[in-house]
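1st attempt posting a full record on here, be nice pls
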Amino acid sequence: AVNGLLRGELGFDGLVITDAFNMEAIAASLKDTEAAELSLAAGVDLVMLSSLNDTIPTVRRIVESVNDARIQEDSITESFLRTMRTRAINVCEL
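the predicted structure (as tokens):
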């Protein structure tokens, strides 16, 4: 839905952000680490974790997912660049 319909067919190039993972629909079936992996693999740019305590395990899971090709590295790079453009930060000037 994100890459195909939203970005492909509709041409949307803005940020796609999840709802907080502590919302009942997500929390009832997935941990933050799992929800983040699935969301990023689907093309979401930013995820909202339920707790700051989940940050390190989630980052580890995402790195592992990129290393194992469950998430494409190019997708993470595109999300990073899209986030920086939205914040008006030119990464070439850093």
